[in-house]
Hints:
- It is a single chain.
- By secondary structure, the protein is mainly beta.
- β4 and β5 form a beta hairpin.
- Helix content is 10%, strand content 36%.
- The strands form 2 sheets. A 4-stranded mixed β-sheet has the order 3-6-5-4, covered by helices on one side. A two-stranded antiparallel ribbon has the order 1-2.
- The chain has one domain (8-98): 2,3-Dihydroxybiphenyl 1,2-Dioxygenase, domain 1 (Roll).
Amino acid sequence: MSIVSDSLPVQKRLDSGEQFNWLVLEFFLAPEHDPYSSWFMASIRISDLDELYAAVRASGVPEEAVGIPRLVPVALREWGQRAGYLIDVDGTQLHLIEEVG
């Protein structure tokens, strides 16, 4: 199952300075995992967090406080950056973090 199957316009900066203008996020079910006991996490740092969040939301992922899959709204977090969360179908939490500067 792919929650986000389209390419999303983003900028990714590499150490070499090379730029990529598209990000493809693909999620696949892993039936052997219990999504409610998952502790897997990853971070996506992006300059246009609002655009990414809107694209994921438009793909049909619900904005909810509980449930899988779901989106947790973007907010200023206790560490001082704006971030939201995408919980995928296997319970993996993707931190969607605004990259500033």
